[in-house]
Amino acid sequence: MKQGILSWSNSPYTTFLSPPFPTTLKPKFPKPNFSKITVTLNSVEESPLTGRERRQMRNARRESQPASNWREEVETRLIKKPKKRYASWTEELNLDTLATLGPQWWVVRVSRVSGHETAERMARSLARNFPNMDFKVYVPSVQIKRKLKNGTLSIKPKPLFPGCVFLRSVMNKELHDFIRECVGVGGFIGSKVGNTKRQINKPRPVDEEDLEAIFKHAKEEQDKADQEFEEEQQKNEVLNSKKAGVDDALLVAKTNALKSPGGRGRKAGKATSLKLGSTVQVSSGAFAGFSGILKKLDSKTGLATVGFTLFGKETLADVDAKDILAKTS
């Protein structure tokens, strides 16, 4: 009997259809080339370790490393774990807890212009109202020296940190409120604490290392200012000595002119006979006896500009035209 495919239909008669290809299909696939791997398994009959035995082995391995003892590290962490400082936010707002820190340096905000006056006023008020309290008031500044024209020495402080005054004391609420009420004080430098209901600016102490750096910086600036003042004084002394030498030379020349015969009774020629570029001689005045070259002649003011040679340099001076004479060879 030939094989066929039964087709489905609604008719009660079934018919067989013969397919156009053979029913048994055998597809051919290429065989892949695998490399041969030889594995030898040695079956070892070992009983599995229990949990207790594994823990014992782990503990023994940890204890065999003395450099990193995990038990000591855990105990050290638990000891160094910071505890909660305040039980509630109301306790954090209590400024009396700052007294437990002992004497500390605090920064007070003052006016940038009148910082020294405010510091002196605050120190006097503290000494008057807290006589048994030890405190220090420090204003980092440089003493600037300056010599005035009348010969007196003027010293003015120049603040290194304008608007800041350093106070060393034991802080509490009473002292905090008293300093805030001083004239010219704007409060303390710190951080805000509290919650949305109430907030205050709690003072924060200055580290000792930072304060030592401030002391060192103030000393360096003071030494620098003193050195600059000394250099300026030396420079002024040199200039004054040169000026004194010029005055002495003028005085000697004037004396010689007065001692010369006919120096007083000699009359000056007319200004109209003078020519620009000619050599003239001064008969009276500060430059009496000096000879120079006439540079300019002003008929309205009656002044003549004469160039004198002093110390190898030409110096111009205004002289009355009546006090100069045309020098004849």
Task: Describe what this molecule looks like in 3D.
The protein has 329 residues and is α+β, with helices and mostly antiparallel strands. The chain is built from 6 helices and 15 strands. The model is unreliable at 1-11, 13-18 and 262-272 (pLDDT under 50).
Which sequence of SSEs, written as H and E, runs from N to C?
EEHHHEHEEEEHEEEHEEEEE
Instruction: Count all strands and give the number.
Output: 15
The structure class reads: alpha+beta
Describe the main β-sheet briefly.
Answer: 5 strands, antiparallel
Total of DSSP H or I helical runs spanning 4+ residues: 6
The rough form would be described as: elongated
Q: What is the alpha-carbon Rg in Å?
A: 53 Å
Low-confidence stretches: 1-11, 13-18, 262-272
Strand percent estimate: 15-25%
Roughly how many Å apart are the termini? 166 Å
Widest sheet, order of strands: 14-13-12-11-15
Mean pLDDT, as a whole number?
A: 76
* Share of residues in helices: 25-40%
Secondary-structure map:
Layout: E1 5-6, E2 16-17, H1 51-63, H2 70-80, H3 89-92, E3 104-110, H4 115-129, E4 136-138, E5 141-147, E6 153-159, E7 164-169, H5 173-180, E8 185-188, E9 190-194, E10 199-203, H6 208-259, E11 279-282, E12 291-298, E13 303-310, E14 313-320, E15 324-326
Antiparallel strand pairs: 1-2, 3-7, 3-8, 4-7, 5-6, 9-10, 11-12, 11-15, 12-13, 13-14
Keywords:
single chain, 24% strand, four-stranded antiparallel sheet, alpha+beta, 15 strands, disordered N terminus, 329 residues
